TrEMBL record:
UniProt catalytic activity: 5-methyltetrahydropteroyltri-L-glutamate + L-homocysteine = tetrahydropteroyltri-L-glutamate + L-methionine
UniProt protein name: 5-methyltetrahydropteroyltriglutamate--homocysteine methyltransferase
Natural source organism: Streptomyces osmaniensis
Residues that hold L-methionine according to the record: I446, G447, S448, E499, D614
Enzyme class: transferase
Length: 772
């Protein structure tokens, strides 16, 4: 059947776009600036060139309205903090002295001043800098960045739409500033903040903006009546302004729920909604609310977070249904394309037919344009595109890559007993204390050590064929020797081998498991200048051979102290990959868990007595709505226990989590039944330790005392103070001393100094506990 053209021509747009450039030019320029090799003017020129290239490519592809203001040197929430003048007092002098250096100081800290706290952007692996607010916060408008970037796009002759974090989401993401009462609610500052948004909107209108997009993803979460009333008041007041552009309120990542009628009734001109499977219910809720008469609806029908080609026919059907619910329906991806790589066409190592299953940012842009054309002109205008899309979908569905009968049979045979340790924790703990003989407040690290220039060069030379495997492995052995020797000399109690052979904590394992695809250029921003290449989980998962045993055993041969085996857990293997969308996530998690269980068994058989299974993504992947969480946590915690449930009682199982809000998953952390958990805690001043204590967490824990995402070296006194704070919540016999996270991104000089101070702090506090 041929779809009739829409009454009003649909247009194509996107909410945001990857920032890094085809060869991560932005990362290289920023890091060059930090090292003094790139001037501020050169950095700005690189950024401007990338912005122009992005906008031109979007426009050339058929995007009718390009986003501006979403480009960032580090983080768009930090950019909003600057635009609102909400600079923490400790950073104010630095910002006033040099705006660029002050900006990076807020992000990374300095030796003397701590950075802003960093945590995950909703349920993604992107990290944002948390605003710090208090009752004395004074907001002042700084529209310079937004206005300048809008003018850049307009000068190219493009229709442009500035994008800002909305006022309600900004306040809901914020935390009380240091020294402010913990029960202070930043949302109480809304009436103080709205005039600042009004000023920025007026400045953007004066600069030529017809529309401005205000992102309000926090409204897809469960919100209280007071929060919903605040959202209604915010957009009633902003909508009543006379000196402003048209307003598009954008939501994404989930269904808008109770906030939908609030925003639908607001005196604004447009609403952007997610209509992918992740936000099931938005279409019915929109219809129930009476649609958006007289308003613009931007329909996010192309999944902006995953990399599979869209089902164009299904999306067109959704768009057709939406036509009767708004005066104008435009087409978009479901969220910013920041969360996917740039271009699937660059992946020459992936077989061409399989590559056609993939849609990165450029391919998703083309899909959005195709859908807008089909909606505006009818399906007859996109016959060839629809036929090619159907062929690609059929190719993937029928591929033998996606199904392995042996894997499915093994997963189906799993019993509840497979996901349980043979003895309760109290009995295991006694066996582990007798076996490991660790001191009070044992010290360890999270796993990785700095990836040196020599190691990176060796890895590149191996890929390029300039050296052979033997020469590369000699380099790896040398790195392990250095790491083990340093840890022994420093006095660390439980050692790691440093992971020199690993490129990334997920990618390394994905490359050794069947069912995964690896990319060469699929970089996605995690935070700041940290980019990762999430592997693609395309089919059923199995482990052909051991993945970590050899190097762990080598490290153990160099020392009499225990060396931890290091694995990435099943939930994180899913969360930090692009997962298959053709079966429930719980089924995929069980397959990954069984593959990792084999690795745990082999590590233990090889003499490894401490095994860490990292799950930093457990909180990140938590559904945004409370009603959806129990089912997720059931399969997520089962997958972890299935990975670790087969070991002996005296084998100590660790897990690790970082940079997330843990308070609402403490019960799930308990349900993992790990013997020891290490967590990020330095920037939040041991908040997670207090949360564990409030829950009555019965096992051992290591809340971090060294913030590894900042180049500053914490003093021994500072680490000791954090440790003493941790002891107020966790008894000494159950408290470990460790950094927040792995050390791969740090340099050796700061790592040495920081870990030496960490061990010194542990000894000091240990002595205070046992003065004899």
């Amino acid at each position: 059947m041929t779809t009739k053209p829409a009454a009003a021509a649909a247009r194509a747009t996107v909410y945001g776009y990857p920032r890094q450039g085809p060869d991560r030019e932005l990362k290289k320029a920023i890091e060059g600036y930090w090292k003094g090799r790139v001037s501020a003017d050169a950095l700005r020129a690189t950024a401007a060139g990338l912005r122009r290239a992005n906008w031109r490519r979007l426009a050339d592809a058929g995007i009718h309205e390009v986003p501006t203001g979403d480009f960032s040197y580090y983080d768009h929430v930090l950019d909003t903090t600057v635009a609102l003048g909400a600079i923490p007092e400790r950073h104010r002098v630095a910002v006033e002295t040099d705006a660029l250096d002050g900006y990076f100081a807020m992000a990374r800290g300095t030796q003397d001043v701590a950075p802003l706290e960093m945590t995950k952007w909703f349920d993604t692996n992107y990290h944002y800098l948390v605003p710090e607010l208090g009752p004395d916060t004074v907001f002042t408008a700084d529209s310079a960045k937004q206005v300048a970037e809008l003018k850049e796009a307009l000068a190219l002759g493009l229709a442009a739409r500035p994008v800002l974090v909305g006022p309600v989401t900004y306040l809901l993401l914020a935390k009380p500033a240091p020294g402010v009462a913990a029960d202070f609610e930043p949302l109480t500052l809304l009436d103080r903040l709205l005039p600042v948004y009004a000023r920025i909107l007026a400045d953007l209108r004066a600069a030529g903006a017809e529309w401005v997009q205000l992102d309000e993803p926090a409204l897809v979460q469960d919100r209280t009546p007071a929060e919903l009333n605040a959202a209604g008041r915010a957009y009633r007041d902003l909508g009543a302004l006379t000196d402003r552009p048209k307003l598009l309120i954008a939501s994404y990542f989930d269904r808008l729920g109770e906030a939908l009628p609030v925003l639908a009734k607001a005196p604004v001109e447009g609403l952007a909604l997610d209509f992918t499977e992740a936000a099931a219910g938005n279409l019915q809720a929109l219809a129930a609310a009476g649609g958006l008469p007289g308003k613009r609806l931007v329909a996010g029908v192309v999944n902006g977070r995953n990399i599979w080609v869209d089902d164009l026919s299904a999306s067109l059907a959704t768009l057709g249904t939406l036509l009767g619910l708004a005066d104008r329906v435009d087409v978009a991806a479901s969220c910013s394309l920041l969360h996917v790589p740039l271009d699937a066409a660059a992946e020459r190592d992936i077989e061409p037919q399989i590559r056609r299953w993939l849609a990165f940012a450029r391919q998703k842009t083309a899909e959005v344009v195709t859908l807008a054309k089909g909606l505006a002109q009818g399906t007859g205008a996109i016959t060839a595109e629809l036929a090619a899309n159907r062929a690609d979908l059929a190719s993937r569905a029928g591929s033998p890559i996606t199904r392995d009968a042996a894997v499915r049979s093994r997963a189906a045979a799993v019993t509840a007993g497979d996901a349980r340790r043979s003895q309760p924790y109290a009995e295991r703990a006694a066996a582990q204390r007798a076996h490991l003989r660790l001191p009070l407040l044992p010290t360890t690290t999270i796993g990785s050590f700095p990836q040196t220039g020599e190691l990176r060069t060796a890895r590149a030379d191996l890929r390029a064929g300039r050296i052979g495997t033997a020469a590369y492995e000699d380099r790896v052995r040398a790195e392990i020797q250095e790491v083990v020797a340093f840890q022994e000399k420093t006095g660390i109690d439980v050692l790691v081998h440093g992971e020199p052979e690993r490129n990334d904590m997920v990618q390394y394992f994905a490359e050794r498991l069947t069912g995964y695809l690896a990319t060469q250029h699929g970089w996605v921003q995690s935070y700041g200048t940290r980019y990762v290449r999430p592997p693609i989980l395309a089919g059923d998962i199995s482990r052909p051979e051991p993945m970590t045993v050899r190097w762990t055993a080598y490290a153990q041969s160099l020392t009499s102290r225990p060396v931890k085996g290091m694995l990435t857990g099943p939930v994180t293997m899913l969360a930090w990959s692009f997962v298959r969308d053709d079966q429930p996530l719980g089924e995929t998690a069980r397959q990954v868990a069984l593959a990792l269980r084999d690795e745990v068994t082999d590590l233990e058989a090889g003499g490894t007595s401490v095994i860490q299974v990292d799950e930093p993504a457990l909180r990140e992947t938590l559904p945004l709505r409370a009603a959806d969480r129990a089912g997720y946590l059931a399969w997520a915690t089962e997958a972890f226990r299935l990975t670790t449930g087969g070991v002996r009682p005296d084998t100590q199982i660790h897990t690790h989590m970082c940079y997330a809000e843990f308070g609402d998953i403490v019960q799930a952390i308990d349900d993992l039944d790990a013997d020891v958990i290490s967590l990020e805690a330095a920037r939040s001043r041991m908040q997670v330790a207090r949360e564990l204590a409030a829950h009555g967490y019965p096992r051992e824990a290591g809340p971090g005392v060294y913030d590894i995402h900042s180049p500053r070296v914490p003093s021994a006194r500072e680490a000791a103070e954090l440790l003493r704070t941790g002891l107020k919540a966790i008894p000494a016999e159950r408290l470990w001393v460790n950094p927040d996270c792995g050390l791969k991104t740090r340099g050796w000089p700061e790592t040495r100094a920081s870990l030496e101070n960490l061990v010194a702090a542990a000894r000091t506090v240990r002595g205070e506990l046992s003065p004899s």
